[in-house]
Amino acid sequence: MLRTSAVVLLAALSLLVPTVPAHATTATATNTKSAAALDSYWTPQRLAAAKPMPAPTAARSTTQEQVGEPKFVHSTAPISSGPSRFQPMSSVWSTIGRLVFSVPGKGDYLCTANVVTSNNRDVIATARHCVMDISTGQTYNNFRFAPSYNQGNAPYGWWNWRSMGWRVDDTSPGGDNAFIVLSTGGNNNSHVQDAIGSSGIGFNQPSNSYAHGIGIPADKDYAVWCEGQPYDGPQGGVQIPNCNGLSGGASGGAFIVNYQGDGTAMQTGSFFGSWGDSYFAYYRDAAWQVYNGAQNA
């Protein structure tokens, strides 16, 4: 009985308390662990044993997506490539990466995330269900990210997290947007955007532009993609028909439109899972609010 009580108490203490103002669109949480503690936690054995995070049940919502003025933030190249960060030719194959984290009381899990341009040069985009459980309010912890991850290889190193934000206004798959703010890290203790560049990001963009869906499924453990003409799905999301390969572990992967090498390619949604055809939570006004808070954290 004492052991059970202790386990319950430890689990409760491990939960992050999110900040959710009344009538909020977004919520946030902050890391309280040191870099040393996170580094020591993620042993090779833990990384190897992490399981793909399943998508939640596709709950319905009556939330009406607010669509404002289109916004677009240009991609960047690694800072080492020239005197200016705002240059084209950053590749999503470099910026996409493996996200690992812990669910208190359940174990270690994995998803996908992508580096997107931000003021603080530290932001990655992922899925809300990769950072918290919208049905219970439980937040996850021990986040760590490796861009360009490929079958256990992290060529640029790993970055620990310092805070995160997610949507709370829409509990359906269409609201499955989240952004994580990283600490400096990697092989050179740098901002992740400086080290590898970033994908452009867009909000309130047309949802019918030809698109690529990119993620890192656990069964392959390297980045794969599908492409096609998307269509509007239920609950404010978009879907790509016959999009095979984005299975468990690809959650949080990038929905990329204008897939070009001139810097105009942009992420406009995050992969939720397969809801019939592959389903992506699209970025509109509420997602902009989450992102804007993250990029200025």
Short description:
The chain has helices spanning 2-14, 35-41, 44-49, 92-95, 192-196, 285-295, and strands at residues 26-30, 51-52, 71-73, 96-103, 107-115, 123-127, 141-147, 159-167, 177-182, 200-203, 211-215, 224-228, 231-232, 238-240, 254-257, 266-275, 277-282.
Give the helix/strand class: alpha+beta
The CATH architecture can be named as: Beta Barrel
Proportion in β-strands: 25-35%
CATH class: Mainly Beta
What Rg is obtained from the alpha carbons, in whole angstroms? Answer: 18 Å
Q: Find the CATH superfamily.
A: Trypsin-like serine proteases
What CATH calls the topology is Thrombin, subunit H
Number of H- or I-type helical stretches: 6
pLDDT < 50 stretches: 1-17, 82-88
- Structural domains: how many: 1
Could you report the average pLDDT, rounded to the nearest whole number?
87
Order of helices and strands: HEHHEEHEEEEEEHEEEEEEEEH
Question: Tell me about the biggest sheet?
Answer: 9 strands, mixed
Helix share bin: 10-25%
Q: Tell me, briefly, the overall form.
A: globular
The CA-CA distance between the termini, in Å, is 43 Å
Q: How many beta-strand runs? A: 17
How does this structure look, described?
With 297 residues, the chain is α+β, with helices and mostly antiparallel strands. It has a single domain, classed as Beta Barrel (Thrombin, subunit H), CATH 2.40.10. Helix content is 15%, strand content 31%. It has 6 helices and 17 strands. The chain is globular. The protein starts with a helix and ends with a helix. The model is unreliable at 1-17 and 82-88 (pLDDT under 50).
